[in-house]
Amino acid sequence: MSLLSSAKKTPIGTLQLIADEHVLLAASFGELSFSEVSLSGVQQVKKIPIISDLIDDYFDGDIDAINAILVRQPGPAFSQTAWKAMRKIKAGKVLSYADLAQRSGSSAAVRAAGTACAKNGIVLVVPCHRVVKTGGALGNYAYGLPAKEWLLRHEGAL
């Protein structure tokens, strides 16, 4: 497995990326904690083909560009379903944690939906920032509410 790592400067901080060819495995505005793969063989590159360009396009205003990025991350079954549901939230829209739980197969699993957001290892591309509290309050975001608010404004949701 030939892993590539890159750091992209964005309007809300440096986005750290790890990919296996054209599949994004991890993305974080902080330090990456990607324990499923040994990072000793990771090649640091200026740009990851396709992925870096699509992220640039997103920040340049093509808010749907990130939909074309393939992703893969380890996690339990409910989280996998929740992450797939998050990817279906259109840019410019938000979904409540309760609605995310329902779309993930269990309307009673609101806390598990929140946990899936918190444990999402592919920030931005698996858009946990589009999940808000019932009633529209922003809720939490691992990288701070100003970053979540910026992303939602950029996408036209606020």
Description of the molecule:
It is built from five helices and seven strands; from the N terminus they run ββββαβαβααβα. The chain is of the alpha/beta class. The protein folds into two domains: 1-68, Double Stranded RNA Binding Domain, CATH 3.30.160; 75-153, Arc Repressor Mutant, subunit A (Orthogonal Bundle), CATH 1.10.10.10. The model has no long low-confidence stretch (mean pLDDT 92). Helices cover 29% and strands 19% of the residues. The chain starts with a strand and ends with a helix. Its EC number is 2.1.1.63. It comes from freshwater metagenome. Residues 78-157 form the Methylated-DNA-[protein]-cysteine S-methyltransferase DNA binding domain.
Shape: globular
The CATH superfamily of the largest domain appears as: Winged helix-like DNA-binding domain superfamily/Winged helix DNA-binding domain
Pattern of helices and strands? EEEEHEHEHHEH
- For the record, give the distance between the C-alpha atoms at the N and C termini, rounded to a whole number: 41 Å
The description of the largest β-sheet is: 5 strands, mixed
What is the number of independent domains?
Answer: 2
Beta-strand share of residues: 15-25%
Number of strands: 7
- How many helical stretches? 5
Structural class: alpha/beta
**What is the CATH architecture assignment of the largest domain?**
Orthogonal Bundle
Keywords: DNA damage, DNA repair, Methyltransferase, Transferase
Domain Methylated-DNA-[protein]-cysteine S-methyltransferase DNA binding: 78-157
Enzyme class: transferase
Catalytic activity: a 4-O-methyl-thymidine in DNA + L-cysteinyl-[protein] = a thymidine in DNA + S-methyl-L-cysteinyl-[protein]; a 6-O-methyl-2'-deoxyguanosine in DNA + L-cysteinyl-[protein] = S-methyl-L-cysteinyl-[protein] + a 2'-deoxyguanosine in DNA
